[in-house]
Amino acid sequence: MAKLLYKLGMGAHRRRLPVVLIWLLVLIGAGAGAFTLGGETSNSMSIPGQESTTALERIQKTFGSGETATARVVLQAPDGQKLPQNVKAITDLVADASGLKGVRSATNPLDPAAPSVNQDLNVGYSTVTYDVKPGEVTDEQRADLLKAVDKARAAGLTVEVSGTAMQEIPHIGGITEVIGVVLALVVLALTYGSLVTAGMNLLSAAIGVGIGALGITIATGFMDLQSTTPILASMLGLAVGIDYALFIINRYRQELRRGSDVGHAVATAVGTAGSAVVTAGLTVVIALVGLAIAGIPFLTQMGVSAAATIVVAVLIAITLVPAVLSMLGRRVLTRKERAAEASEPKDRGVVRGWAGAVTRNRVAALLLSVVALGIVSIPVASMDTTLIQKPPANSTQERADQILAKGFGEGFNGPIIVLFEGDGAAATATKASEPITKLSDVALVTPAQPSQDGKSALVTVIPKSGPDTVETEKLVADLRAELSDVEGGEAYVTGATAVSVDVATSLDKALPIYLAVVVGLALVLLILVFRSLLVPLVGVLGFLLTIGSSLGATVAVFQWGWLADAVNLDGTGPLISLTPILVIGILFGLAMDYQIFLVSRMHEAHHRGAKPIEAITTGFRQAAPVVIAAALIMFSVFAGFVPAGEPTVKSIAFALAIGIFVDAFVVRMVLVPAALALLGERAWWLPKFLRWLPELDVEGTALDDIEKKDRQEPVAVG
């Protein structure tokens, strides 16, 4: 692989201008495609084939509900008054809402035929139905509705709005994300000592993210993608794009300082660091594409979309980056370095001291790191997950939910829908309603709503507890048990809580299989890279501690509320159901990145004849500075999505930021060197029956034979 990538790097050097132009054309083409073909993302998180999803599809087909966006305008009468005393203000509000652009209808909460007020007559709601699907309501339409609400507020009513029509599509590019990118630029500038080189690194990564994000936008025109997909893909693409370019540029600078000409330095950087980049990228892609094992379409789409962005980042790192480096030549070095004689970079005292301390005190270092990460992992035992998302703090949606919960009960915001099918479905539903009312945590069961053909009927069950509570989740299971053998037809339990339960169940079943397959494939890849059994095992076992501490810290902050203000947390509660499997998949790939970049230099030193301890310290001194920079960059990018992040992304970004920090600075730079020092020569042992495996040559040792030739025969640049 090293020789192949060496030739690729040399080709990028020789044809640097066409390479740069091709990537710019790809970026422009992706932008044009996104503008003309792009569609809207979706907030749906259901699983085809599950009971809750099947029921929703049949309800939409039979009753037509759920197909369009709706807004629930919640009204509360002034203190000491009832809503009927404000009939004019309410009627005017309904009339104003009905006349808005894109609104199909608006109900009157005081309509005698279908009232929607509580028993005390001080809280009610109007359902405003739009003629577009959820996610397609424009900012202008939302603003128009809020203007109509302000008019009712002026009349003395308390009015707030919630519903699918008020859900905005998550966006990328907030102030905190920008701060994360700026911090990454600062780290790059300090690492290189050159703002030009740092800017080039960041710009190449931005081009990769742009192409990836625009490609996902094009895909939305042909399929329904979950709204979180582009954010996750962009967050990952930016982080790895910066890191992969960093590894290539760092090796190029090393080759220049050794006295290599520009062409040879570019080709060698791609052949050596590029081999590690390709291997690391492949590991991340395996972890992301492996999410398809869960059998959840929207999760598969997230994984494949993010993996595609990673592939673009790798391709840019081994083609565009070397082409731009060829254009910059020796200007990537500082003025002092350009003026100095060719020489190997001096060891950095702190890094050298760190390596020596870890290898000398390997038993203590290993035990301390394992115990510390084990303690941080303890909260994982109490982790709860859900798909129910709370509205933003202090938003009109949150205030609307609070008014409804106070006026109608906590469970009103999380109703459970039961669909009955069969001849005489309404009668069957009415008969089944009696035992349902006797179940614990049931506050109300509405009368059966029959379909036009009489073969279907809907019953709404209002729990006593809130939508994201354990009690409501248990009620879903109790309802299914009660209705499993209903006479006269079939019964299906659905609603947001039921969908959440089904997704959580599917994820719990898929997670062990996912771990086994992804870890197994990655182990095979690492065995090929290092031609060792114990080094990959140490890397994977260290990853388990990374995952434990990452999710443990996330539970402590997002469920328990520890340091909640530091991450601008609106409120505590269960983690989003996707958090564990996404964090495991993404962190595994990124953790193996650091394993490859750090240990490959140790393996290279050992392959060239260094003794085990010497190989560890030599490889550590060479790779640790760039790994530190890479980890700080990735931490900054992920952390930038936390303070003002969209709720689904906030906990995932936090877990990734903590995971990257722990994995780089504790697992890869303390635990792994200490474990390898304890193993000694045995760390590089490969059984005889596996010695037939091919050599990937990530370190680029095969390039030694052509190094002299390339130095003696300068490459003609045309």
UniProtKB/TrEMBL annotation:
Q: Where in the cell is it found?
A: Cell membrane
Keywords, ordered alphabetically: Cell membrane, Membrane, Transmembrane, Transmembrane helix
Span-the-membrane segments of this chain are: 172-195, 202-223, 229-249, 270-298, 304-328, 363-382, 511-530, 537-563, 575-599, 620-642, 654-679
Q: Which InterPro entries match?
A: MMPL_dom (IPR004869), Mycobact_MmpL (IPR050545), SSD (IPR000731)
**Residue ranges constituting the SSD domain according to the UniProt record:** 178-327
Q: Which domain of life is it from?
A: Bacteria
Q: How does it sit in the membrane?
A: Multi-pass membrane protein
| Primary localisation category | membrane
The entry's family comment says: Belongs to the resistance-nodulation-cell division (RND) (TC 2.A.6) family. MmpL subfamily.
What name is this protein filed under?
Answer: Membrane protein
Which organism was this protein described from?
Lentzea cavernae
